[in-house]
Design brief:
Blueprint lengths: L1 H30 L4 H4 L7 H4 L2 H11 L25 H30 L7 H24 L7 H9 L2 H8 L9
Helix pairs in contact: 1-4, 1-5, 1-6, 5-6, 5-7, 7-8
Length: 184
């Protein structure tokens, strides 16, 4: 029963964390002058706008696996047009790529900080204890999503960051690794 409850907490936390992550990308693109995410309805915290069905299915399968539940999945990537950004194509794409993981990190750390101060008050009854457990899982999922996205493999965010920061010749060589990322 505890593992099922933990799996449910992981899946729900994952859903909200992915929406936050993709919203971060979309909001940054809009702030930089690209209206594409707004026009596609991605400048929203709506789960429907950001959830990829296959990524969600993978999260369910891994969260409800026998043994230690671990949610892993993905959302629909936000499409940003680098040529519409006021700060330039490369700088704009860099800022958009950083925005998603950074927002997850901020949310995860803020929830963890909140728990540091009020967590002791939530152990009084079973409902408050479940809320405490959910908030711990939610903070952990957000921080783990940030850590996972700083791996420089395609299609993760750090792949785009590394590609942009490399000189042209090295970026071209690095881009060849992109075809292997989804398999890894």
């Amino acid at each position: 029963m505890i593992n099922v409850l933990l799996a449910i907490m992981i899946v729900v936390s994952f859903l909200f964390s992915i929406a936050i992550h993709e919203y971060g990308h979309a909001q940054m693109a809009v702030w930089l002058g690209d209206r594409t995410p707004r026009d596609e309805g991605r400048q929203s915290l709506s789960l429907r706008q950001h959830i990829d069905p296959v990524g969600l299915l993978m999260c369910f399968i891994l969260a409800f696996q026998v043994g230690i539940p671990a949610g892993f999945g993905w959302g629909k990537p936000v499409k940003a047009d680098p040529w519409k950004m006021r700060v330039g194509a490369n700088t704009g794409l860099l800022m958009v790529a950083v925005a998603g993981p950074l927002l997850n990190l901020i949310v995860g750390l803020l929830v963890a900080l909140l728990l540091h101060f009020v967590g002791g008050y939530l152990v009084g009854n079973i409902y408050a204890l479940r809320l405490l457990q959910f908030l711990i899982v939610f903070a952990s999922v957000n921080i783990c999503l940030t850590i996972f996205n700083i791996i420089p493999l395609y299609p993760l965010d750090c792949y785009q960051i590394v590609y942009i920061l490399l000189p042209s010749k090295q970026a071209l060589q690095f881009s060849k690794s992109g075809q292997y990322g989804p398999f890894i």
